From TrEMBL:
InterPro entries: ATP_grasp_subdomain_1, PPDK_AMP/ATP-bd
Superkingdom of source: Bacteria
Name recorded for this polypeptide: Pyruvate phosphate dikinase-like enzyme
Record-annotated Pyruvate phosphate dikinase AMP/ATP-binding domain positions: 295-671
Species whose genome carries this gene: Alkalibaculum bacchi
Pfam families per the UniProt record, alphabetical: PPDK_N
Amino acid sequence: MIIIKNYCILFDKVSTGIIGFDKTIDMLRLGDNVVWQVDSAEDYRHFVKPFIRQGREDKRKIVYMRFSDQESLLDDTNGVKIYDLNANEGFESFGTKVHDIITEEGLEVFYVFDCLSELLRDWHSDLMIGNFFKITCPYLHELNTVAYFAIMRNTHTYATIARIRETTQVLLDLYQIKGEYYVHPLKVSKRYTPAMFMPHRSKDEEFLPITSSMDLSAIFKNTSIQEERMDYWDRIFKDAKDTLFLSQLEQHKTKNILISLLIGRERRITTLAKKYFTLYDLLNIHNRQIGTGFIGGKSVGMLLARKILETDGEESLNRKMELHDSFYLGSDIFYTYIVQNNLWKLRTKQKKISGYFKYAEEMRQKILTGKFPENIREKFQQMLEYFGQSPIIVRSSSLLEDNFGNAFAGKYESVFCVNQGSPQQRYEEFANAVRTVYASTLNDDALAYRLKRGLFYKDEQMALLVQRVSGDYHGDYFFPHIAGVGNSSNIYVWDKNMDVDAGMLRLVFGMGTRAVDRIIGDYPRLVPLDKPEQTPLVYYEDEGRFSQRKVDVLYLKNNNLTTEPLEKIMTLDIGTSKDLFAKQDDMAMKRMKELGIQNKQMYILGFDKLLKESTFPCVMKEMLRLLSDKYDYPVDIEFTANFTAEGDYKINLVQCRPLQTKGLGKAVEMPVIKEVKDCFFHFSGNFMGGNVRIPVDYVVLVDSKAYIELPQDEKYNVARVIGTINSELKDQKVMLVGPGRWGTTTPSLGVPVRFAEICNASVICEVAYKSGSLMPELSFGSHFFQDLVESDIFYAAIFDGYENVIYNPNYLMDSKNYLEEILHKEASVKDVIYIAKTEGLEIYSDIVSQKVICK
């Protein structure tokens, strides 16, 4: 029987509740974390009970952190506050909840935690057990608490135990041998007794040190130092390999377990994964994974789409597919990086709504300068040795990304690593790319996106997809021949005879960056796949002006992504016929000659021969149809294609996700316009958003002439004011009308707002202005397009001055400007920004007639 000593606390000394134990370790101290390494929960319980009883006698506040399905550690819960926690919610939610409880409970509390090894049931990773201990124990120590923990012997890796030993104040080995308990202190911080670190036999009220070699060898003869144990995660996959030789039923059970570990929990995605992935597929994914945890939405989408095409596609389609050899950085590395660099407390503050934006920039900057654990660095080096000097791209693949309902299009970074130079240079380039993607989880647009879409409280753990860049070396440059975005539903058609279900492409030459982003002065080729030769119905005077004129490429000499003029790239040997993509620009060459410039070749990237004479449009149409059919949902893909000298080609599918659409909507009865003065605007085509009838409460209009005359720094100020208006009118139906492109990075081409500064608008209009380059760019398929669709924002491009286009700003601007009233102060931009408060104003659109009216 254990005798409990009833004596007062001396200074910061605290009793374990056992007389002999207190003498052995010179009592506990306020701030101690006590970790017991045990063989069973029952052994741990044996020493928890006296600790709790002593706490009651000393009138301590006692808290029991309960998260195990096993029997409670406490028979008597009188005076104990119990928190039932759910580890299945994930590391971040669980860790944050524990942190909040500790904060609320305050100083000098006694804690008992269920056995930490139980967390493996939900987290499946020793790495994350170590992370949890690393973030929790220092905080408990800081608040002068005393906390009991336990871990199961021979369960965790030595690396995990080492992290626990490093962090805790007291580490104890507990054995039960022939009915007797032996406690072997391995670490006792800031105190010492002559026999402290000898094994002790717990007998009655005493703890007796075992000093005799004869006794010690008899007791521990069956105990040995074992080889390094595998992480629990790796053991699961090792055992899974053995089921490859068992029955289909056993393989099916194992496959479902691995899907829950690698793929995630979103029902529609996991249903597809269970249908298409085999157990062998999942084991192959694990073989190319670095770290533990989910592989994230982008990786899942890419792998799933490829598997669908491989399984259900015709042989002719599969022959056109380029293989991939990607790697996946598990989502747990992200948290390990945060913990390793002592950023968890700051992250906890940032995750509160009060600190959501306040601490984001500080957190982002610290992520950019952090260090990776040694074992992760070694895995990175091995991966880079595999790729050699092939260019690679590090892509975000967060848990919520590329999912049904949330595309996160363009919210997170993707970073090209040209991958030239020494091994150390290539490692540093890659490590910086990983840091950059991690830091992008805290940029303003990503934060605003999560907040607006109700994802504030969800874990947004960042996994990464590392892909070999598709393409080839052409002189000092590396690039694919073509790249682009594909949508299986072309609901923003510009011709009533087009088939919505045929899909469309946004096609560029070179790197695909110019297909997903709105690029200064450049226009990708929009390809309706039922009529690939047809271009959008717009009033372009010059085909060359509204085509792609620059090419994004990887420049090997400078080790970076750069942009070159099309004419320069066309001087290279690109390994295939250039007239597949480009044709000579006769009008431009004629003008050159008139100016005295001879022998200069000019091109238009129209992709005419590719679209007229190759099977490429048909193959892309079939690919999109099949993926959409199997997803039972419209899809959005990113792709590249490379051509041989004979004109054959391979398509590399690099991304696939559900395409967020709201459909065409029901037909709208359009109002009749008798005179120009009767409406704000009226035109045909150049809109996105289907059939709508939207009431408008406020119109925020940026005057084109006044804006273009502003100095550049004041144009940025206009963008920031728009952001303030966006917040002030967030509960109203607002139409934004401005010159050129909303969201451009170049003020001379439009208003340089971030999407977070216009996200609350109901309608966005871009107005062409004849002076300068203020020209809308129809954004079908771009990241901006995804933002508009997901935010349910109607878009229209107003080509003022063109035939059959009515644009009448005086329809609204003759009334009061509400700018200063809404800003609650005098505004320096009052001559540039005009806000009309409207009554009865509505915008109408009709897909069939392609009409847009606002009156």
